[in-house]
Amino acid sequence: MTKVIQPVSEQKGPVQGGKALNPPQIPLVAGGSIVSAVLVIYLAFTQDVSQVVLLILGLLLGFTLFHARFGFTSAFRRVMSVGNGQALRAHMLMLAIAVTLFAPILATGFTFFGGQATGYVSPVGVSLLVGAFVFGIGMQLGGGCASGTLYAVGGGRSVMFITLLFFIVGSTVGAYHLPFWTEEMPSFKPFSLATSTGLGYTGAWIISLIFFGLVAWVTLRVEKVKNPPRMAALPSAKGWKRVVRGSWPLMAAAVVLAVLNALTLMTRGTPWGITSAFALWGSKAASLMGIDVASWGYWTGENASALQASIFSDSTTVLNFGVILGAFLASAAGGLFRFNKITGGNAMASVIGGLMMGYGARLAFGCNIGAYFGGIASFSLHGYVWGIVALSGTFLALYLRPLFGLSVPKPKDTFC
């Protein structure tokens, strides 16, 4: 019998194959809707209107991530273990749409609520290399990347609450150590394909599309040689009901995520990010415990005000809450929200993976969203380097996962 491998953060509930969808969990949908509405009203009365827009964008991001089971962790694991590049090709489409939308926005600096739109362009150095490698290992042990952790929590995957907790701890420790990595370790200046080369945004856009096309072509060639297992279809409603219930095609989700990221850029002036909020949450908690967080180098300068303000004034926090709520609504609408059993090995892997992702994300100037997705969409060299180094971390993690009882796809497996 062919074994079915469930990507840890990408599948919620039992694999149903051709069976009918579970009935919607109406009380949960109603509860999630009420919480979302209350949060919208609270933000409308206490924060800038842009925060309301960001919450809505977060809801849509979480809804999309869950319905498509759009993963970064499993995409890297599949291509590195058995050569299946289906999900990685979806990444390339997402990035192609993103750079197409980002180019004119960054060139003009246009935003909806004033200010200048700026991308994520960070230096390439020891901090990035170490951080991305550590993150690549961590996301394979922790069961999901930054976005995967949030939408898995929203979907009720119990062990991911452990991952999230230690993700926050790791981010906080990383914030404390960051000045050492950025000031004492060697690095190059930030490099943009658009502004550091003379190519401009048009030239950088063309080069980017060529690269994405090349990566997609390579994955197809690898699949032709290796003939890896395909991704199994997930249960889905038909017609317009599929928007609310059932799985979405990866390619459709790739387009939606790129558009939502561009809208995020025009709303708050920077692309979608996740992990800076984890450092903020952890630092505020540490401050309550009597730790002098304000003296840390990370919380001086432009970051100082965030430490003193309400977390609801932090745009990344609002986006994160939206992603969790959006995934919760999507899982409840599909009848898939449920808590599951946590094993000892799974829990330990989540602790270690969460710590590694949190620490790595701070060193690498972001995670799979802020550094990889946002960095590449912003035409920053560090985004490409992050992806390559995180893939190498994934390769090492393939040998570590079995130590915790975690599965690794094999050539004869079918995975969802």
Automatic annotation (TrEMBL):
This is Membrane protein. The chain crosses the membrane at residues 26-45, 52-72, 92-113, 159-178, 199-220, 248-266, 319-339, 351-373, 379-400. It is a multi-pass membrane protein. PANTHER family: INNER MEMBRANE PROTEIN YEDE, SULPHUR TRANSPORT DOMAIN-CONTAINING PROTEIN. It is found in: Cell inner membrane. The lineage of its organism: Bacteria, Bacillati, Bacillota, Bacilli, Bacillales. It holds the Pfam family Sulf_transp. Keywords: Cell inner membrane, Cell membrane, Membrane, Transmembrane, Transmembrane helix, Transport. GO terms for cellular component: plasma membrane. Belongs to the TsuA/YedE (TC 9.B.102) family. It comes from the Bacteria. It comes from Rossellomorea marisflavi. The keyword Heme does not apply. Its main location: membrane.
